[in-house]
Design brief:
alpha/beta; 6-stranded mixed beta sheet; single chain; 13 helices; about 350 residues
C-alpha cells in the first residue's frame, strides 16, 4: 500500500500524523535536505532561472554545462561526459544510439529498465549470458555484442568484484553500465565504478547514471571516450532534448566541498550499523554502499511497528516481487542508526 506525503522524506517522515524514522529512498548523501546545498541551489536558481528549455545546440549557450561535464569526467576518470535531464534518459540515450544492425543487445541479470530498447529479456545468470555471447561471436552474424548491466544491482553479483562480467569475452564486447547507485557514493572520491571497468580491456566502455541519488540534483550523465561522446553530442536525440537545469549543474560544481564530508558521515553510519548488527546474514550488502536488501516482509512490519519506514514495494512493476531495503543516509544521526540496529536486533530476539 502506498503512503502519500507532502514534503521530502529526509531522516524523518510523517505518516498518519505520526513521526517515523525513514530508512529508504536513494538520498545517499542527504543533500536534498542539506541547508548549505539548498542555499547553493537557491542562489543558482536566482542566477540561471528555474529551468532552461532550449537545445544545447542553440546559438546561445550556457558555459556551465561544459564546466560541469569536465568536473564529472575528471571525477569518474573518463575521457568525456555529456549531461541530460535524467538518469533514465541517459540510459535511453546510449541504448538508442547503439540500437542499429551493427550491434546486438545482451542484457545481464537484473539490468535496469532504463537500458531497454527492445523486448529482449535479461539472462537469469551470467553463465547463460556468457554462452549466448560466445555463440553469437562464433556465428555468421557480424553485429558487435553490447552487454548492458547495472553496476549495483543489490544482489551483489556485479559491484564490487564483477566476477560474472569478467567471465565474458570482454575484448569483443561494448559494455554499457548504469552506475546510478554508485556515482557519488562508491569508488575513489565517489567517482563510481568507471576506473574498475576501464581496466577490464573491453572493446568499448560506456557508463550512464542518474545524478539525483548521489548528488541530489535532477540530471543524468553519460561517460565514455572522447570520440564516442562527440558522436553522441551530434545526434538529434541530444540536440532535440532539453538539458538539465543550469542551476543544478552549477550547484553540482559549487557543492564539491560538501561531498567528502557527507561520504565520511555515511561511511561512519555504515560501519556502526554493521558493527552492532547481530545477524548481518539476513541482508545483501555491498562494500562501501549504504543499502541493505532483505526478503523478510515480517521484518518490514516489525520496523513499522517501531516507527521505522524502509523501502518496500513491487519493483520495477506491479507484477514484480516485493523489494525490501534499508538505506542509510548521511542525513541520519548516530542515534538514528543506533535505534535502527536496536529494532532490527530485537526482531531476532522475539
Amino acid at each position: 500500500m502506498a503512503d502519500y506525503i507532502d514534503a521530502f522524506p529526509g531522516r524523518k517522515i510523517s505518516l498518519n500524523n505520526r513521526p517515523y524514522l525513514y530508512f529508504g529512498g536513494t538520498s545517499y548523501l542527504g543533500l536534498q535536505t542539506d541547508t548549505t546545498f539548498q542555499n547553493i541551489l537557491i542562489r543558482n536558481i536566482q542566477k540561471y532561472g528555474t529551468n532552461y528549455g532550449a537545445s544545447r545546440q542553440s546559438n546561445i549557450r550556457f558555459s556551465i554545462y561544459e564546466k560541469a561535464e569536465s568536473y564529472l569526467a575528471k571525477l569518474v576518470q573518463s575521457e568525456a561526459c555529456l549531461t541530460l535531464s535524467s538518469g533514465y534518459l541517459a540510459g535511453q540515450f546510449i541504448c538508442h544510439h547503439f540500437n542499429t544492425k551493427e550491434y546486438a543487445f545482451f542484457y545481464a541479470p537484473n539490468a535496469h529498465s532504463a537500458l531497454y530498447q527492445s523486448k529482449i529479456r535479461p539472462y537469469t545468470t551470467f553463465t547463460a549470458l556468457n554462452i549466448a555471447v560466445r555463440e553469437h561471436l562464433t556465428s555468421s552474424k557480424r553485429s558487435i555484442p553490447v552487454v548492458l548491466l547495472d553496476s549495483i544491482d543489490f544482489s551483489g553479483c556485479n559491484y564490487p568484484n564483477f566476477e560474472g562480467l569478467r567471465s565474458l569475452p570482454l575484448e569483443d564486447i561494448v559494455l554499457v553500465v548504469d552506475d546510478s547507485h554508485g556515482i557519488g557514493v562508491v569508488g575513489t572520491d565517489g567517482g563510481g565504478v568507471y576506473p574498475v571497468l576501464s581496466g577490464l580491456n573491453t572493446k568499448e566502455l560506456m557508463v550512464c547514471c542518474s545524478l539525483g541519488k548521489g548528488f541530489g540534483i535532477q540530471a543524468g550523465a553519460v561517460f565514455g571516450s572522447g570520440k564516442r561522446i562527440s558522436k553522441l553530442r551530434d545526434t538529434a536525440f541530444f540536440g532535440g532534448a532539453s538539458p538539465p537545469s543550469p542551476a543544478s549543474m552549477a550547484s553540482l560544481v559549487e557543492g564539491h566541498s560538501l561531498y567528502p564530508k557527507k561520504r565520511k558521515l555515511l561511511e561512519a553510519h555504515i560501519h556502526l550499523f554493521l558493527e552492532t548488527l547481530e545477524n548481518s546474514a539476513q541482508f545483501n550488502h555491498m562494500t562501501q554502499h549504504p543499502a541493505f536488501s532483505y526478503s523478510n516482509k515480517k521484518l518490514t512490519r516489525h520496523l513499522e511497528e517501531n516507527y521505522i519506514v524502509a523501502t518496500s514495494f513491487n519493483y520495477p512493476e506491479q507484477d514484480a516481487s516485493t523489494m525490501h531495503r534499508l538505506v542509510l543516509s548521511a542525513a541520519h544521526t548516530k542515534k538514528d542508526v543506533e535505534y535502527l540496529v536496536k529494532v532490527v536486533n530485537s526482531y531476532h530476539s522475539l
